Amino acid sequence: xxxxxxxxxxxxxxxxxxxxxxxxxxxxxxxxxxxxxxxxxxxxxxxxxxxxxxxxxxxxxxxxxxxxxxxxxxxxxxxxxxxxxxxxxxxxxxxxxxxxxxxxxxxxxxxxxxxxxxxxxxxxxxxxxxxxxxxxxxxxxxxxxxxxxxxxxxxxxxxxxxxxxxxxxxxxxxxxxxxxxxxxxxxxxxxxxxxxxxxxxxxxxxxxxxxxxxxxxxxxxxxxxxxxxxxxxxxxxxxxxxxxxxxxxxxxxxxxxxxxxxxxxxx
Length: 267
Fold this sequence. Notes:
Helix content is about 30%, strand content about 15%. With about 270 residues, it is an alpha/beta fold. The N and C termini lie far apart (about 40 Å). It is globular. The longest helix is centred in the last third of the chain and has 17 residues, at about 240-255. It has helices spanning about 15-20, 20-25, 85-100, 105, 115-120, 155-165, 190-200, 220-225, 240-255; strands at about 50-55, 60-65, 70-75, 105-110, 170-180, 185, 205, 230-235. Helix 3 crosses helix 9.
């Protein structure tokens, strides 16, 4: 698999790894079979979007980076192909972020459009090999089977894992959906961000510890590594435009943190 990334994405990597021992300690990639490699990625499309990696069926996993501030935030537009309620939020977030005064000087926002384009194309939860990508991470709770033969056996999960370890975001947000409920849950040191999101959106707050076990999930791995992660569970079937409007202010608030209340950095 060939990863195609913007050169500026890894600026300052050494300093971030040195300052975040928790994620550095999680930087172990288990051996994986050769068949994990996907077809070579096509060239990056024009504009801010580039091809981070390719899916098992060769579809591009697109990403874009906005801003150049010290706070690093990663938005993942979807992991399960049948949970597309957050699609409009993913599409609208960049412009909303860029419209906030001072945001680009204070925050660097990276957006992954869709981690599972094969699943989205087929309208199913899993990737093309039938693996639940949100159970394919190297958490201690990983179990082989429908979660994959080994942690990070799938190119889509591996791409996100490598990006997180390489870029060291301060906060990760992931869009999901849930039947008959809408809530935000959190892993790692993200309770304050989750509380703020819940207060502004009206979503219920549910810590991951209050939910059923999710072996090998991104959240489980994040908790073990001390990575702050918010999972936004939109109500299944909600119109994506309505979902964005209901959570726009909350998303921007946690992306920006409290930085907009602080004086700008020295030039």
